[in-house]
From TrEMBL:
InterPro entries: Aldolase_TIM (IPR013785), GH (IPR017853), GH-type_carb-bd (IPR014718), GH97_C (IPR029483), GH97_catalytic (IPR019563), GH97_N (IPR029486), Glyco_hydro_b (IPR013780), Glycosyl_hydrolase_97 (IPR052720). SUPFAM superfamilies: (Trans)glycosidases. This is Alpha-glucosidase. Residues 560-655 form the Glycosyl-hydrolase 97 C-terminal oligomerisation domain. Residues 1-21 form the signal peptide. Keywords: Calcium, Glycosidase, Hydrolase, Signal. It comes from the Bacteria. Residues 296-462 form the Glycosyl-hydrolase 97 catalytic domain. The lineage of its organism: Bacteria, Pseudomonadati, Bacteroidota, Bacteroidia, Bacteroidales. Monomer. It holds the Pfam family GH97_N. One of its GO terms (molecular function) is hydrolase activity, acting on glycosyl bonds. Its cofactor is Ca(2+). It comes from Bacteroides faecalis.
Length: 659
C-alpha cells in the first residue's frame, strides 16, 4: 500500500511539474473551424499554432521581443487568462460593406517574466470565422515605463509546404512597386524581404498574412531567416537597430491571418477594419467619395485651342468643365510636366527644396480664380503635394487649402513605413479631417484598415500601377491579376485607372503624353469594380473618353459599396468581384494574358427580376483591344452569366432591378 501511495504521489508531482512547465490556451472561431493555440514552454519562447479544421496552417510560430535591455519571452509564465465573445458591429462610410456584423472569440493572455526585470506583455488573440489575429499589448507597470525595441521575435512558421504568392523587396525604403513570384513555401529564398499581404494556398484552404491597425509602430515584412519565416520591422531612419520606441501603455498592430476555403473569402473579408478602432471623426457628413481627373497621367492634354497647356487657369478650366459635363466629382491639380503647382526652387516632384511652399502657387497659376470657377461648376478640387513641404507647415497649409475649397489631397513620395512615417501619416489624416479634406496616400505602404478610424483616407498606392505605362514596357494583365490575391487583401488601392488608348502588346511603345495600355477596354472597366478604391481615377484626357464606348460605365460606377462578394476566382488566372450599391450590383472581371471562358451564378441577388447590362470583349480585341460588345439580358437569382474573356481581357456588368 505504501509503495502505491509513493508511486501515485510521484506521478502527481510529475504531472503537476509538466503542467507548470507547459501550458496552452486555445481560442476558436465562432463556427469552430479555426483554432488558435498559444503555448508557453519553460526556457523557450512562447509559441502558437493555427488550424483550419484538420489542416495545420502555422506550426509553433514564436512570440517574443528583443529589447535594449534583453530578450522577452524565454522565461515567462501564464498569468490569469480572460476570454470573451463579441460581435464587431459598425458602419463604414467607405469600405467593402456599409454595415458589418462579425462575431469573434477573444482571449487576453498575460505573459509574465519569472526573473528580473519581471516585465509583462499581454498577447491578445481574436478569432473570426474568416481569420485569426493577435497583437501584443504592453500594459502600464511599476518597473517598466518605456521600451526601445530592437526586433520582434514573431515568426509565422507554416506547416504542410503551401504554394506561395509574394513580392520580394530590396530594402525597407520602397514604393512597393514590384512584381509577384510563385513558388512552394520550402523554396522561398533566404534573407530576402517579402511584402505583405502574402498568399498561401494549402490543399483545401487559403491563408494570407498581413497586419491591421498600424499606429505608432513600425510596418512589418516577412523573411526566411535560418529556416524560419520571421516578421521583420522597418527600422527608424538613419540606423538599422532600433525599430520602435514607446511609452507604456502601448500596443503593436494586429498580426493577421486571413483564412478561407475559397480565395474569394479573403477578398471580401472585413477582418482588417474589424481590428481597427471606431471612427475618430465626429462630423462625417462632408466625407463623400467620388471620381477625379488626374491629368498628369495623360500629359495634361488639351484640344487645339488659343491657350497652351500648363499651370494656368485655362488648362484647369478645360478639365473642370469636363468633370461637370461627365458627372464626375473632383479635378486634380498637380502642376505641369515635372513642375509642381507650388513654388519650389528645385522644381521637382520627388526632391523638394527646403524652401518649397505649398501655400504659394507658381505665378502662372491663379488658384483663387480656379477655386471660384470650380465651385461655380460644383466641382471639388484635389491637390497633389509632396509630403515633406506639406508636413513641414501642415496646419498652415491645410488652412490655406480649406480657404481654396480643396476637398482632397494626394500626398506623395513617402516611400517608408517606419514608426516615424506611420505617425506622420496619421497626423496628416487627423489634421486633414479637421479641415474637411480627404487623403490619397501615394508612394506609400499598404493600408491596414485605418479607413474605419479615419474614413477620410480614400486611397493608398503601395503597388506598381498604371502610371508605369508612361515609362515601362513590363506592365499588363499578368501583373493586374496578381493584385486581387495580394495587395488588394490589405484594402484600398490607388491604380491610376482609365487608360482608353489600348493597343496589342506588339504595338505598344512608351509615350509620356497620351500613354498606351495593353489590356482591353473591358479589362479597364472591370478594374473599377475589382479594385477597392474610394477615389476612382479617370486619368485619360476628356477627348479620350467623350463619345467612346464604355465611358458611360465609368460615369455611373459607384466608389462606395454596401456589400462585396466574389462569385468566382482562380489565383493568377482570373477574378470576378460583385459589389452592391443600394439595389444595384456592379460586377468586374479581369483576366490574365490567356483567353478563357468563365461563368458565375447570380445567387447573390435578392428575389425578383433584374436587367444585366454586360460589357464584354469583342471578337476582334486581339487587333483592336478598345472594341467591346454591350448587351442586356434579363436575369434573376437563379441565373448564370457566362463571359468570354479575351487575352488581357475582362468584363463589366451593371445589374439593376427590372421596373
Amino acid at each position: 500500500m505504501m509503495k502505491k501511495i509513493i508511486f501515485l504521489f510521484t506521478l502527481l508531482l510529475c504531472t503537476y511539474g509538466s503542467i507548470q512547465a507547459q501550458k496552452s490556451i486555445t481560442v476558436k472561431s465562432p463556427d469552430g473551424n479555426i483554432r488558435f493555440t498559444v503555448q508557453v514552454n519553460k526556457n523557450a519562447l512562447p509559441s502558437y499554432s493555427v488550424y483550419y479544421k484538420n489542416t495545420q496552417l502555422v506550426k509553433d510560430g514564436a512570440l517574443g521581443f528583443e529589447f535594449d535591455n534583453g530578450t522577452f519571452g524565454e522565461n515567462v509564465t501564464l498569468g490569469r487568462t480572460t476570454q470573451r465573445s463579441g460581435i464587431e458591429k459598425y458602419d463604414l462610410i467607405a469600405g467593402k460593406s456599409s454595415h458589418v456584423e462579425d462575431a469573434f472569440q477573444e482571449a487576453v493572455i498575460p505573459l509574465k517574466e519569472t526573473k528580473a526585470p519581471n516585465r509583462q506583455v499581454n498577447v491578445v488573440v481574436r478569432v473570426f470565422n474568416d481569420g485569426a489575429a493577435f497583437r501584443y499589448v504592453f500594459p502600464k507597470q511599476d518597473q517598466w515605463a518605456s521600451y526601445i525595441m530592437y526586433d520582434e521575435l514573431t515568426t509565422f512558421d507554416l506547416a504542410n509546404n503551401p504554394d506561395v504568392l509574394t513580392m520580394f523587396l530590396k530594402s525597407y525604403t520602397t514604393s512597393h512597386e514590384g512584381f509577384y513570384s510563385q513558388m512552394k513555401y520550402s523554396d522561398i529564398p533566404a534573407n530576402q524581404l517579402m511584402e505583405m499581404p502574402t498568399l498561401y494556398h494549402y490543399e483545401d484552404v487559403y491563408m494570407a498574412i498581413t497586419e491591421a491597425a498600424i499606429r505608432n509602430y513600425a510596418g512589418m515584412y516577412l523573411m526566411n531567416e535560418q529556416g524560419s519565416l520571421r516578421g521583420k520591422l522597418s527600422p527608424l531612419p538613419g540606423q538599422q537597430q532600433i525599430k520602435v520606441k514607446a511609452e507604456l501603455p502601448h500596443q503593436s498592430p494586429w498580426r493577421v491571418m486571413m483564412i478561407g476555403k475559397e480565395v474569394g473569402a479573403l477578398i471580401s473579408s472585413n477582418i482588417l477594419t474589424n481590428l481597427n478602432d471606431p471612427c475618430a471623426i465626429k462630423d462625417t457628413s462632408w466625407i463623400k467619395p467620388g471620381k477625379t481627373t488626374f491629368s498628369w497621367w495623360n500629359g495634361n492634354v488639351v484640344p487645339d485651342s488659343f491657350f497652351l497647356p500648363g499651370n494656368n487657369f485655362y488648362t484647369n478650366q478645360y478639365y473642370i468643365d469636363f468633370v461637370a459635363r461627365a458627372g464626375l466629382d473632383f479635378h486634380s491639380i498637380y502642376g505641369y510636366a515635372e513642375q509642381p503647382w507650388y513654388e519650389d526652387e528645385n522644381m521637382s516632384f520627388e526632391f523638394p527644396s527646403e524652401t518649397a511652399n505649398v501655400m504659394k502657387p507658381v505665378k502662372s497659376l491663379d488658384m483663387d480664380t480656379i477655386a471660384k470657377y470650380a465651385a461655380s461648376k460644383g466641382v471639388g478640387l484635389h491637390m497633389w503635394v509632396n509630403w515633406k513641404p506639406l508636413y513641414n507647415r501642415l496646419e498652415e497649409a491645410l488652412t490655406q487649402f480649406e480657404k481654396w475649397g480643396v476637398r482632397g489631397m494626394m500626398v506623395d513620395f513617402m516611400d517608408r513605413d517606419d514608426q516615424e512615417m506611420i505617425c506622420i501619416q496619421e497626423d496628416i489624416l487627423k489634421k486633414a479631417a479637421e479641415h474637411k479634406i480627404f487623403v490619397q496616400f501615394h508612394g506609400s505602404s499598404k493600408p491596414s484598415g485605418l479607413n474605419r478610424t479615419y474614413p477620410n483616407e480614400f486611397a493608398r498606392e503601395g503597388t506598381r500601377n498604371y502610371e508605369c505605362y508612361k515609362w515601362s514596357k513590363d506592365m499588363g494583365a499578368d501583373l493586374d491579376i496578381a493584385i486581387p490575391f495580394t495587395r488588394l487583401l490589405a484594402g484600398v488601392t490607388d491604380y491610376h485607372l482609365g487608360g482608353f488608348h489600348a493597343v496589342p502588346k506588339d504595338k505598344f511603345r512608351i509615350q509620356y503624353t497620351n500613354p498606351l495600355v495593353t489590356s482591353t477596354r473591358c479589362h479597364m472597366l472591370g478594374m473599377y469594380v475589382v479594385l477597392e478604391c474610394y477615389l476612382g481615377m479617370v486619368c485619360d484626357s476628356p477627348m479620350a473618353y467623350e463619345g467612346q464606348p464604355g465611358f458611360e460605365f465609368i460615369q455611373k460606377v459607384p466608389t462606395t459599396w454596401d456589400e462585396t462578394i466574389v462569385p468566382s476566382a482562380s489565383v493568377m488566372e482570373y477574378v470576378t468581384v460583385a459589389r452592391r450599391h443600394g439595389s444595384d450590383w456592379y460586377v468586374g472581371a479581369i483576366n490574365n494574358s490567356k483567353e478563357r471562358s468563365v461563368s458565375f451564378k447570380t445567387d447573390f441577388l435578392s428575389d425578383g427580376n433584374y436587367i444585366a447590362e454586360i460589357y464584354s470583349d469583342a471578337n476582334d480585341t486581339d487587333s483592336n483591344p478598345n472594341n467591346l460588345v454591350k448587351r442586356t439580358m434579363k436575369i434573376d437569382k437563379k441565373s448564370t452569366i457566362e463571359l468570354q474573356l479575351a487575352n488581357s481581357g475582362g468584363a463589366a456588368i451593371h445589374i439593376y432591378p427590372e421596373k
